[in-house]
Design brief:
Blueprint lengths: L3 E4 L12 H10 L5 H16 L2 E4 L21 H4 L8 H14 L6 E4 L6 H11 L5 E4 L9 H9 L3 E5 L3 H12 L2 H7 L3 H14 L3 E5 L12
Length: 226
């Protein structure tokens, strides 16, 4: 089975000054304004480790997106990027839905983010995928899921069903290598690579592999996301 991994928010930042929040994140990541270029390269290496085909869309990361009304940055804090999609971005959700529909093969198995943790770009992707009106699988967003057990519990209580897919030792090594390839993001979630590898290994062990989620027919998919 051919597997493709699509990064939705891989577009270049707009011309001109960035928000202080975006600049602060660049400093943390030690990337400067070349963050997007560097992360696309990391994504290529990550997909190579998983033997998956990468795909990059042209929507900029949320920290770069601006209001079309006054040019002001829409997401300027940690709380903003971990919150709902800005009302002004409703057309962007619709645009992404149309592009997904155009690019997806008709027989594709689609796996969308649950948006656990509430990252706005994950929410954007999930909303657009749900707008397709096609059967969906959902994945629990690593690393956010590692501290979001209560959110998964809510899924079970509301009727969602999980299918377990075992992960071999070779699969685990590829998974860890794929995460390690995202070097600019490691420090946001773990103190070092050893901690990341231990966390991924524990997640695989505790879940007997990985779990993909489906919502039963007739149940609303727009559950509350903390």
């Amino acid at each position: 089975m051919a597997v493709s991994v699509w990064t939705i928010c891989a577009g270049e930042p707009p011309e001109g000054p960035l928000s202080p929040f975006a600049e602060k994140l660049h400093e943390r990541w030690q990337t400067g304004r070349g963050a997007v270029t560097q992360r696309r390269g990391e994504d290529l290496a990550s997909c190579a480790a998983m033997e998956a085909t990468p795909g990059h869309f042209h929507i900029p990361d949320c920290i770069y997106r601006r209001s079309e009304l006054d040019g002001v940055a829409l997401y300027t804090s940690e709380s903003a990027i971990m919150g709902p999609v800005h009302p002004q971005e409703a057309p962007l959700v619709e645009q992404l839905c149309r592009e997904l529909d155009r690019r997806l093969p008709k027989d594709a198995e689609i796996i969308a983010p649950l948006a656990l943790g509430g990252h706005v770009d994950h929410r954007l992707t999930r909303q657009a995928a749900q707008g397709l009106g096609r059967p969906l699988w959902y994945y629990a967003d690593v690393p956010y899921v590692l501290s979001r057990a209560e959110e998964l519990k809510k899924l079970v209580e509301s009727g969602w069903k999980a299918t377990i897919y075992p992960v071999t030792e070779a699969g685990l090594a590829a998974w860890q290598a794929a995460v390690a390839a995202h070097a600019s993001q490691i420090s946001t979630f773990w103190p070092d690579l050893d901690s990341m590898e231990a966390a991924i290994s524990a997640y695989r062990r505790n879940n007997q592999g990985v779990r993909l989620w489906q919502v039963p027919r007739g149940l609303l998919t727009d559950i509350s996301i903390a």
